TrEMBL record:
Domain called Protein kinase: residue spans: 25-320
Residues of the full protein shown: 367 to 689 of 746
Cellular localization per UniProt: Membrane
Organism phylogeny: Eukaryota, Metazoa, Spiralia, Gnathifera, Rotifera
Residues reported to bind ATP: 59
Protein name: receptor protein-tyrosine kinase
Entry superkingdom: Eukaryota
Amino acid sequence: ATDGTISTIISSYYDDQCEFSRENLTVGHLIGKGAFGFVYQGTAKGINSKEKVTTVAIKTVRDDATPDEVENLLKELSVMKMVGKHINIISFLGCCTKGGQVMLIVEYAKYGNLRDYLRRKRPPGHVLSGLYETPSDTDNNEHQTIIHDDDYIRSLTNIDLILFCLQVASGMEYLHSKKCIHRDLAARNVLLAETRICKIADFGLARDLTQTYYYRKQTDGRVPVKWMSPEALFDRKFSKKSDVWSYSILAWEIMTYGGTPYTSVAAENMFDYLRDGNRMSQPINCPNEIFQIIESCWSFKESLRPTFTQMCDNLRHYLYGSS
Ligand code: ADE
């Protein structure tokens, strides 16, 4: 909530250190569309000292954006700056706030979001754990360029999947160490960059914590409530522990090659469903040790859920042996 005009809001966030000159930025094609704005692929000259031209992702608001929407983008920018750099977090590269539309320049992730990637890589004949999942609810690739170049031969093994789980847990451990709570952790909000590096995205978003966002169906029928912990669902209580719960749903998505959680449960029945003790079952290919980690996040009582540090240790132990 602000009383200001867009220009006063912009000047209150202005930071000369981060301003990138518009002349050196080229905006390319649309790669994503959110509730408030657009994401484009683009190139930035000299934004990275190691190369002349860098492929970047550019976030903007719509032309007719309200002051609040502009401020949300600037808030996202300031959270990204505050959080800083980690290999498993989408990093902030710069912004253009002066002399035109506000643009946030972030690291580009070549393979797009993890959910769609996993679905494309699903082994032929893979048996889904979720019931009644129809093929038509799959990839919403309207704006995503599907990359078939250098990655199509290498299929995903269980070890690859568990490495994705570890990378996301490492990024979250870092985010929590910076006192940042994600609130919407899901495979759709993890991006995959070159050499299959997972990057957590959208952690700086100002959340619309009203019922409408969480109950709104996405175009493919998924509802964010299915990633929410009981206390987040019931009394909007978001914390590190509710991120841990969401992470376990994301780990389940990874282990099912982008499966849709609780396909047979309606969004409005989720709270009762969980309160009655129901949980998702072990994906067929998921090792017991990994499912135990996932299940440990499904405690109704927040204090019984592990931390990301503990989960990273357990995942590393599974992957690399005694640590
Ligand atoms: N879609 C949304 N943000 C993106 C990014 N940073 N890289 C690639 N695709 C994206």
